[in-house]
Amino acid sequence: TEANRIIPTCPPAELPKEPESVYRALRYGTAKFLQQCGIKRMTVGLSGGIDSAVTAVMYADILGPENILLLNLPSRFNSAATRNSAQQLAQALGANYAVMPISESYELTVKQLEETPITHLADGSSFNLQLSGLIKENIQARDRGARVIAAASAAFGGAFSCNSNKAELAIGYATFYGDICGAMAMIGDLWKHQVYALGRYLNELIYKREVIPEAIFNIRPSAELSDAQTVGNGGDPLVYGYHDYLLRAFIENWHKTTPADILRWYKAGTLAAELGCTQEAINEACPDAAALIADLERWWNLFAGFAVAKRIQAPPILSLTKRAFGYDHREAQLTPYFSREYYELKEELLK
Questions:
Q1: Same domain, 224 and 247
Q2: Are residues 215 and 312 in the same domain?
Q3: How far are the Cα atoms of 8, 19, 82, 206 from residue 15, in angstroms, in the given order?
Q4: Cys-Cys link to 342, which of 247, 260, 266, 278 (CB 3.0-4.6 A)?
Q5: Domain boundary among 188, 209, 235
Q6: Do 278 and 198 fall within a single domain?
Q7: d(CA 202, CA 215)
Q8: Cα–Cα distance between 102 and 146 in angstroms, integer?
Q9: Do 221 and 50 touch, CB atoms closer than 8 A?
């Protein structure tokens, strides 16, 4: 009867939307993981970029800033802008913070490798190793992760974080035993645009102040590992407004998108709609068909090739989607494959 009807005290709660749902899931999952592992302190390499900034702020929210150690590890390639942003963030959090330059140790490693003769014991001949630019970049990443951050974490207690996002993991844009090591990749199931959105949410609704400096949102993403790869020159090789969505289609679509699908959609003029990105982002990354094909093959070969080996050895990823790397996205180390239809479409478009 009307008298016995139960009147709800509040309307049914709406399902949370991004980035709120992302924040709640990350916070809950990370807190449970740390609790189960007995981790009460966390060390984070703080570069001055958005990925490490969001990771640091999330850990401070979960464990308290007094239990967070933030380390800025500059070489001569790191800009004053990113160093200043890292310090501003650490100060806004009230966390433990230190600057530990790696230039001296990096230069010593390069000198050891290039100037120490290698002897071929069968005939007594010798030669010296020659280090490419990429090798020198990777030395810096390993010096930060495997040497300084890992050792500092052991001394501080607890564990240290992997700051890689899903786009970087998808193409292997990380260094073995460098920036792809740690106890957990908290944001490893977030695309770059989701990391930015989460950063805004943390400032505006969780901390209600600017803990992540505005400069971090505006600066060009870069690993800052060489003169050709800085925030003012070069930057990351990905145009995230397009590549986030391209890579997501390879992984998260129920029927995983293939390179042939991409060319078919491009030919039909529906690529932006199919991927969910803007046409402007596609044009920025790939101004014509030849550029789009070269770009597609570059990232597909990495995604389905050597990046798999890196993902197999990556830290555990906090899963938010049905296709997180690890158990959810099943994969094997097979040769990247392009179908006959792909080559036919490629030939047609290049004409």
A1: no
A2: no
A3: 18, 12, 37, 19
A4: 260
A5: 235
A6: no
A7: 15
A8: 12
A9: yes
On whether residue 166 sits in a domain, the answer given is: yes
pLDDT recorded at residue 283: 97
Instruction: Decide if 30 contacts 161 (C-beta within 8 A).
Output: no
Q: DSSP string spanning 68-124?
A: EEEEE---TTS-HHHHHHHHHHHHHHT-EEEE---HHHHHHHHHHHHHSPEE-TTT-
Does a structural domain hold residue 298?
Answer: yes
Structure tokens belonging to residue 89 = 């963030």
For residues 108-116, give the mean pLDDT. Answer: 97
- Helix intervals (H) in 128-213: 133-142, 150-156, 166-171, 192-201
Is the pLDDT reported for residue 7 higher than 90? no
Average pLDDT score over residue span 242-257? 93
- Residue 2 resides in a domain: no
Range(s) of the domain holding residue 324 = 239-351
Euclidean distance between CA atoms 55 and 22, whole angstroms: 13
| Beta carbons of 20 and 201 less than 8 angstroms apart | yes
Question: For residues 138 and 14, which has the higher predicted lDDT (pLDDT)?
Answer: 138
The verdict on 91 and 212 lying in the same domain is yes
**Same domain assignment for residues 172 and 209:** yes
- Domain count along the chain: 2
Q: Are residues 257 and 296 in the same domain?
A: yes
Region label for 189, one of left (φ > 0), alpha (ψ between -120 and 50) or beta (otherwise) = alpha
* Tokens 């550029």, residue located: 291
β partners of residue 118: 127
